[in-house]
Design goal:
The chain has 315 residues and is α/β, with parallel strands linked by helices. It has one domain: Rossmann fold. Helix content is 44%, strand content 15%. It contains 13 helices and eight strands. The chain has an eight-stranded mixed beta sheet, with helices on both faces. It is globular, with a radius of gyration of 18 Å.
Amino acid sequence: MKLPSRVTDRLFKRRLPADQQFPFRGTAQITQTTVRLPDGRRMGIARGGPAAEQPVIYFHGILGSRLEAFIGGEPHHHVIAFDRPGYGMSDPLPRPSFDRFAGDVEAALDQLGIERCVVFGGSAGAPYALATAVRLGNRVAELFLVGGVAHASMVRSAGVPMRWLVDFAEKEVLRERIVPGLRDLLNNPVVTNAWLRMSVASEGDVMPSAAATQLLAKRLSQSWGAGIAAGEEGVQTDLKLLTTPWDIDHEALRCPVRIVHGGNDGVVPLSHARWYVRHLHGARLKILPRHHHVTSILITAHKVMALAHWLEHRS
């Protein structure tokens, strides 16, 4: 079922109190497992929320994991989240590319018996979500790209912090010494706490309470830890693919596309959202004026899951 644009428009126009935007509905009850891909590699999966014929397929950001989809707690709708190759429970992908990753997702969904879905990509997960939507074709009801990192040309022309992706991908001292030590760094509470304070400091002004901001930081830390548990290869792959030309035929995309971006996003510039609008036919842009990077992804994921649940039960 296609998500009616009038319903989606109404969803994003609706202003909710902060405690309803970020409900943190307890701790998500999730099932974590792996599937075997046709070439024998494993792909890590987390599933949660009530059963649905059209689940939301969630693609995490850099340094994320399958757990990122459940930071907001128990989802309204069934969610399936993958570890990208080299992250968490997923084996690395030989000769990695966006299209080959999309082939992995297609094979995994076939094994899981998923015929139709809604695709959601946040931050660095956006191009992976786009590649998957192109690959799946009519199996995708709608694509949501939120706070999404755009084409490598946009990454290379951006300032800090986006420019750091290029530095870490190309400067040997960073690529060979710092990135391989990420797991040890993230296992150091002093480093992790400082990183988290920096990551969520700007988000606090739209969170309902200091306690909610602390809970967000805690769950981000858990997601990071799960993603980097097997080593840094997933991060290295992201750095390479995000800073070099894509192998995504975005003109072949057939599903409706919604681009969402925080007006105060200090991580991914708004110009990246506008790149997607220019290059994806029929893409519609919604700017969340008060929101930053993490909160724009969190609130949009919450709304998309609620919408998908409502539509499935309505039909």
